[in-house]
Known about the structure:
By secondary structure, the chain is an alpha+beta fold. It has helices spanning 6-25, 29-33, 55-69, and strands at 36-43, 53-54, 70-85, 89-102, 107-121, 124-134.
Amino acid sequence: MTVCPLEDRLALHDLTVAFAHAVDRMQDAGEVAACFTEDCTIDLTGIGMADVVTGHAGLRGFYAGAFAANSHLAHIVSNLAVTAYDGETAAVRAYVTAMARGKDGGGMTVHGRYYFGARRTADGWRFTGYTMDFLLPPG
């Protein structure tokens, strides 16, 4: 792997934080989509949550549904690592503790790992998508 320069490492870190903040603000699914490329693919089947979601429209629809169903969301992201880098694309792995309180009174907590793909664009780094798996199994 080519060594990831500090400025790109920080930009990828900031993008990860911007994504988590946009989700937790629960204000605008477009704000979440702005962290991603237009051709993004989100696959949460590894944690049994959703079908594969593609593109900004699919992403906005998925997060608009999550915002409508929940009263609170919190994503605590840590242990970020750039695991691949070639100057134009990168892979980022991060731990996440994701908590949701549903409007129906239910809730859930997921202790997992994000696996983001990223690409340098004219507007800076954007995620091309992500998958997740469990760090700790539910239960």
